[in-house]
Automatic annotation (TrEMBL):
Residues 3-128 form the ApaG domain. The gene is apaG. PANTHER family: F-BOX ONLY PROTEIN 3 (PTHR14289), POLYMERASE DELTA-INTERACTING PROTEIN 2 (PTHR14289:SF16). It comes from Flavobacterium silvaticum. GO terms for biological process: error-free translesion synthesis. Pfam families: DUF525. It comes from the Bacteria. This is Co2+/Mg2+ efflux protein ApaG.
């Protein structure tokens, strides 16, 4: 598991390999990632958008931007936590992801970016 704190918001990520799948007649490696967002600040915040950079050892970087996370824009009061799981398919057994969440602080009404630390995607059978 990897973790990082930005402006009192702690992001923790754990990953797992889910298996191989054929999609469009090509082999893909499926990974799940479990993200926990903890509000250690003194203000209520809301996650509004996300940005991902997906690195695949066999392909170029894929960038994904979108509203919220898994269809939600969670509001976290001080001390609250939001957890969700998602996944991705890549063409190789090795890759990584990193990104950020755009959030709004309800006290200051300012938008700010919370870093999601780089996390590895690696199939256990491919490790030496």
């Amino acid at each position: 598991m990897v973790s990082q704190i930005t402006r009192g918001i702690k992001i923790s990520v754990a990953t797992s390999f889910e298996g191989t799948y054929f999609k469009n007649h090509k082999l893909h490696y499926a990974f799940n990632y479990h993200i926990t967002i903890e509000n250690h600040s003194k203000d209520s915040v809301q996650l509004t958008t996300r940005h991902w950079e997906i690195f695949d050892s066999l392909n170029d970087i894929e960038t994904v931007d979108g509203e919220g996370v898994i269809g939600k824009k969670p509001v976290l009061k001080p001390g609250e936590t939001h957890t969700y799981s998602s996944g991705c398919l890549i063409a190789s057994p090795f890759g990584a992801m990193r990104g950020w969440f755009n959030m709004i602080n309800f006290t200051s009404t300012r938008n700010f970016r919370v870093a999601v630390p780089t996390f590895r995607l690696s199939a256990p059978f491919a490790l030496n």
